[in-house]
Amino acid sequence: MSFDALTLYYEPGSPPCRGVLMFLLENGIPHKIQRIKLFEKDHLKPEYLRINPFQKVPAIQDADGFFLAESHAILKYLIRTRASMVQDHWYPSDPQKRAKIDELLDWHHSSFSWSSKLTVWNAVMVAKFMNQPQSVNIPVVEFAVGQMKKSLGTLESILDKGPFMIKGMEQPSIADLSLFVEIESLRLLPSNVLYYTQAKDRTCSFSLTEYPQLCQWLDRMRTLKSYSPVHQSFQKVVSMLQSSQLKNGYAKI
């Protein structure tokens, strides 16, 4: 069965957007990309609010005009509607494996995603790119980093049981994909998370190297064919930030 191309409303700086695009590319699902520039407030314009009233990215419009937002919902919709194109390992038909994937996806949003996004948004986007270091609430960032580290420790222990996030699976699932793009975004952080803020003399250390199993898993996920094309612009930003930090005496992440 052939499918007409769907439209993905996309911002390359958004981890959930990158996750959906990687999934589309991995499974050869026809699509078109419509860029939504968050810094230009495209997500607040009336024409986009008709597509996604939640004012976020990603969102999709299927060929029949159906709109859907939220990355996890989009991934499951694509699996159900493009079943003939999607490899089983992404969301296995086995009910127990599928349930464990759902469990991890729910945990991702309730326990990990908020702390990761809060940290990156304040410590990098607001303090560095928006040049508003005075606007960063330092205690909030420090709390978020602590919670983020706890979540990464949980994932580190899960990976003691196998190469991917779901025990007994030898290939990645959509839970791996969703977590991967989130954790990959942490490469934007300097080794002292407060480096770009007005409290840069305070230490709030972070390094993914503290999680060796997680680093090996990240390397496995980076071998996916969709990784490089989706992360080209992201990698340029990471390289720019790391170069700036090295000039000022900070090690790479």
From TrEMBL:
Keywords: Cytoplasm. One of its GO terms (cellular component) is cytoplasm. Residues 4-86 form the GST N-terminal domain. The keyword Signal does not apply. Gene3D superfamilies: 1.20.1050.10, Glutaredoxin. Its main location: cytoplasm. Signal peptide: none annotated. This is Glutathione transferase. It holds the Pfam family GST_N_2. It is found in: Cytoplasm. Residues 94-250 form the GST C-terminal domain. InterPro entries: Glutathione-S-Trfase_C-like, Glutathione-S-Trfase_C_sf, Glutathione_S-Trfase, Glutathione_S-Trfase_N, GST_Theta, Thioredoxin-like_sf.
